UniProtKB/TrEMBL annotation:
Region of interest (Disordered), residue spans: 1-32
Name the record gives this protein: Serine/threonine transporter
Keyword line: Amino-acid transport, Cell inner membrane, Cell membrane, Membrane, Symport, Transmembrane, Transmembrane helix, Transport
Organism: Motilimonas cestriensis
Membrane topology reported for the UniProt record: Multi-pass membrane protein
Principal subcellular localization: membrane
Reaction equations catalysed: L-serine(in) + H(+)(in) = L-serine(out) + H(+)(out)
Protein localization: Cell inner membrane
InterPro entries: Amino_acid_transport_2, Hydroxy_aa_transpt
Membrane-spanning parts: 44-62, 68-86, 119-139, 159-176, 183-203, 223-241, 269-287, 313-337, 361-384, 390-407, 419-441
Domain of life from the UniProt record: Bacteria
Length: 442
């Protein structure tokens, strides 16, 4: 279950890669038309879903809900096509290469040159690295809240709790990728069931008063605009797309685009259904004042619910869901960040005519990750602020705008020109970036 990231032609990326009995040979590729659905396709849908579910989704109800019901409804309408068309375009970009084994860095270099390949590698690292930092903060706050509010314990010193949790997650990574992928696979599938169960459990607590409170046009537009970057982050599974697209080409040859489109469509539908149902259920269960309190506490919304909800089910399962979602996504995104940083160092060394020991580079990266994760977890910056200010704009650039540029400039992608979806995705990418620029300037 290995996957490459955009960082390097020889890196692995963060998802559970389904196995298949088919092998890559010309005859196999021609036999598989991609028209029929199979078990491996379903596994891919669940794996891509697991890549997207993490801290972004657990914090999404806070930002999305603060603006009220009607902007939230508009987000639900937009986020499905946003997610599908953006990831579909990125997949098609990877599949546009003449090299059947090319990852996204290879494709960028093939179409735009070596300099652009280095730039995308750098940008991709800085898209993933803040997410890893977010997980260090999120898991520390989740466990601390659980210990204090559910177990009745006193808080451990933050520096001690954070380093213990970080080393615990890192030890799984250092034990080997096979162990990490087994643990990730074990975590992802129950997460789907539990997330749906929690959403249903909250239905009796729904308060529909917010539906009657219609915001002004200005408030509605501003809320929607400023929340778009969080939506981009929360539904993002782009770290998986490079390996996913290559795997489809191995199995389906010329039919890879059609098969990839079908899998990504089902993934987007699953994310829209499960995640937005969860968001609506949580938002309708909490008042705006409670959402503000959760934001101020810098807690995942389920950890906050566990502290204020009277049900023991929510009290104990809420933090467990938050913990599982953060850990499962941390493993995958850490792989991308690690290999991204390794790729930057190795490529720069080669450009300078130097040879580097890959094992030493890897050890340096591990040490760098542990130290920076620890420092940020102790400082405890706003998770929502990190999502909005660091993750959203870079992800939007790579996921929304780069494939659109390729459709205009690359002959192999010219056949995708003229679609209305292209205008929509370009607009949403620019909206996400403009929202961040506005907030930074404000």
């Amino acid at each position: 279950m290995n996957q490459k990231t955009m960082a390097s032609a020889q890196t692995t990326a963060p998802i559970i890669t389904p196995t298949s009995t088919s092998t890559h040979n010309p005859s196999a590729a021609t036999e598989l038309t991609g028209s029929s659905w199979n078990k491996v396709d379903t596994t891919w849908v669940l794996s891509l879903f697991g890549t997207a579910v993490g801290a972004g989704i657990l914090f999404l109800p806070i930002n999305a809900g603060l603006g009220g019901f009607w902007p939230l409804l508009a987000m639900a309408v937009l986020v499905g096509p946003m997610t599908y068309f953006a990831h579909r375009n990125l997949s098609r970009f990877v599949l546009s290469s003449n090299n059947p084994k090319a990852d996204i860095t290879d494709v960028v270099e093939e179409h735009f040159g070596t300099g652009a390949g280095k730039l995308i590698t750098l940008l991709y690292f800085f898209a993933i690295y803040p997410i890893v930092l977010i997980y260090g903060v999120g898991i520390t706050n989740t466990v601390d809240s659980f210990m204090v509010n559910q177990l009745g314990m006193e808080s451990l010193p933050r520096w001690l709790l954070s380093i213990t949790l970080i080393l615990g997650m890192m030890s799984v990574m250092m034990a080997g990728e096979k162990l990490m992928l087994k643990i990730t696979q074990f975590l992802v599938y129950p997460l789907v069931v539990i997330l749906a169960g929690m959403s249903l459990f909250l239905i009796p607590d729904w308060n529909f008063a917010a539906i009657s409170q219609a915001p002004s046009v200005m408030d509605f537009t501003t809320t929607l605009w400023l929340t778009i970057p969080v939506l981009v982050f929360a539904f993002n599974h782009s770290p998986a797309v490079s390996s996913f697209a290559r795997k489809q080409r191995e199995q389906y040859g010329d039919a890879a685009v059609a098969k990839s489109d079908a899998i990504l469509k089902r993934t987007s539908a699953m994310l829209l259904g499960f995640v937005m149902f969860f968001v609506f259920s949580v938002v309708l269960s909490l008042s705006p004042e409670m959402l503000l309190e959760a934001k101020a506490a810098n807690l995942p919304v389920l950890s906050y619910l566990a502290n204020v909800h009277g049900s023991p089910v929510i009290a104990y399962f809420g933090p467990i869901v938050a913990f599982v979602a953060i850990v499962s996504s941390f493993f995958g995104h850490y792989l991308g960040a690690r290999e991204g940083m390794n790729g930057i160092i190795i490529k720069q060394a080669k450009a300078m005519g130097k040879t580097v020991d890959k094992k030493k580079v890897n050890l340096f990266t591990i040490g760098f990750m542990i130290i920076t994760l620890w420092i940020v977890a102790v400082i405890n910056p706003s998770v929502l602020g990190m999502i909005e200010d660091l993750g959203g704009p870079i992800i939007a650039t790579i996921l929304f705008l780069m494939p659109m540029y390729a459709i205009k400039r690359v002959p192999a992608m010219a056949k995708y020109q003229g679609a209305i979806a292209n205008v929509f995705i370009t607009t949403m990418g620019l909206v996400a970036i403009s929202a961040i620029v506005f907030k930074l300037l404000a």
